[in-house]
Specification:
- The protein has a domain of about 200 residues.
- It has 17 helices and two strands.
- The radius of gyration is 21 Å and the shape is globular.
- The chain has a two-stranded antiparallel sheet.
- By secondary structure, the chain is mostly helical.
- The protein binds zinc ion (ZN) (2 copies).
- One zinc ion binds next to helix 15.
C-alpha cells in the first residue's frame, strides 16, 4: 500500500518545526527579493511565546529564591554577552584559551540570542555600516521597533553571514552552537525546572517549585536580558551625549551603561571599538571591564586591549562632538 503523502500544510509545519531545532534545516533556498526583509512569523513564534510565558508569574507565584536566581542569571549572562559575544567574539579585544572561549560561548548561548557566530557576524556588519541603509538595525534608518526587535526576525537576517567571521568559523564547537542554537536554552530551562522540583521536595522552606524557577529563572530573566541588550541597538543610537563626532548616531548613556554592564558608553565604543574597555573616563562605570580585569588577574583571559593614550588625551581635553 502506498504511504499517504503529507499534505502541503503539514509539510510546512514540519519544516518550520525542524527549522526551530536545526538552523541548518533551512533548505528553502534564498528568499526572493523583498520577501527576505519581511518578518518570518512562523520562525519568530518561539520569540513571542517566551514573552507570553512570562505571564506564568500569575500562576506560579514568587519567592525570594526565584527572584535571586533570575537576577544571578541576568548578571552572569549579561557578562557573557557583553564580555564575550561582544568584546571577545565580535571585536577580539582580548585573548583567552579555547576552554574559556567555549565556556562563555555556552553561557552566551543560554541568553537565547542565538550562537556566537551569528551574533558576531551581524555585529561586525553593524559597525561597518552603522546608521546607513546597510546597517541591520539602525533606528535612524529603520525606526525604533525595527532596530529593537524587528530586524532579526526576518529571513535574510536569520542567516549567519559567514564572510564576516572566518576567524571564528574554524572552531567546530562554535559552528555546532550556531546550528543548534536552541540546545543550550532548552538545557537551561530543563535544569531550572528540575532544580525547582528538587528544592520543593528537599528544601520546602525556600518556597519554590519547578514551574516557578522555570518562569522566573528562564522566561522572565531571559526576556528582560534580551530587551536590555537590544537597547544598545535602539536607544543608544538615539538618546545620550556624543563625546566623539563619529559617522553614526551612537550615544553615551549612563542609564544604559548600568543596565548593560558598560555597553551604554556606545559613542566611545563606536569611536574606538578595539578596546576591551568601553567606559573611557574613570567615572564611566563599566562592570564588564571590571569583570574582565578580575578574570585577567586570575589568568583566565589575557592581553586585554587598553584605550590608547591618544584617545584618553581627547577624553581629558573634554572632547565634545
Ligand atoms: Zn552601535
Ligand atoms: Zn561593537
Amino acid at each position: 500500500m502506498p504511504r499517504p503523502s503529507l499534505q502541503p500544510g503539514n509539510h510546512r509545519m514540519m519544516q518550520t518545526l525542524r527549522r526551530w531545532f536545526d538552523t541548518g534545516a533551512d533548505d528553502t533556498g534564498d528568499p526572493s527579493p523583498g520577501q527576505g526583509a519581511r518578518v518570518d512569523w512562523a520562525r519568530a513564534l518561539p520569540f513571542f511565546a517566551m514573552h507570553l510565558a512570562c505571564l506564568g508569574v500569575l500562576w506560579v507565584g514568587v519567592s525570594w529564591f526565584a527572584v535571586v536566581v533570575a537576577l544571578v542569571l541576568y548578571a552572569v549572562r549579561m557578562f557573557a554577552i557583553t564580555g564575550f559575544y561582544h568584546r571577545y567574539f565580535s571585536h577580539r579585544t582580548f585573548r583567552t584559551s579555547r576552554a574559556v572561549q567555549l565556556l562563555f560561548a555556552l553561557i552566551g548561548a543560554a541568553c537565547v540570542q542565538r550562537g556566537p557566530l551569528w551574533w558576531a557576524a551581524h555585529h561586525r556588519n553593524h559597525h561597518r555600516h552603522a546608521d546607513t541603509a546597510a546597517d541591520p538595525h539602525s533606528p535612524a534608518v529603520h525606526g525604533f521597533w525595527w532596530s529593537h526587535m524587528g530586524w532579526f526576525l526576518t529571513r535574510e537576517r536569520f542567516r549567519t553571514d559567514w564572510s564576516r567571521i572566518p576567524d571564528l568559523a574554524k572552531f567546530p564547537e562554535l559552528r555546532w552552537l550556531d546550528r543548534y542554537d536552541i540546545a543550550v536554552p532548552l538545557a537551561l530551562a530543563a535544569a531550572l525546572y528540575a532544580l525547582g522540583e528538587g528544592l520543593e521536595r528537599f528544601a520546602p522552606a525556600l518556597g519554590t517549585t519547578g514551574p516557578q524557577l522555570l518562569v522566573w529563572g528562564f522566561f522572565v530573566s531571559t526576556v528582560v536580558l534580551f530587551h536590555a541588550t537590544v537597547t544598545i541597538n535602539s536607544l543608544a543610537h538615539r538618546f545620550g551625549s556624543r563625546r566623539f563626532a563619529t559617522r553614526d548616531d551612537s550615544r553615551n548613556n549612563l542609564l544604559l551603561a548600568l543596565l548593560t554592564f558598560g555597553e551604554g558608553w556606545h559613542n566611545n565604543h563606536h569611536f574606538f571599538p578595539g578596546s576591551a574597555r568601553q567606559g573611557f573616563a574613570w567615572w564611566e562605570v563599566d562592570l564588564t571591564w571590571y569583570g574582565l580585569r578580575a578574570m585577567s588577574a586570575l589568568g583566565l583571559v589575557h592581553d586585554l586591549k587598553p584605550v590608547p593614550a591618544w584617545v584618553l588625551a581627547r577624553v581629558d581635553a573634554g572632547d565634545k562632538a
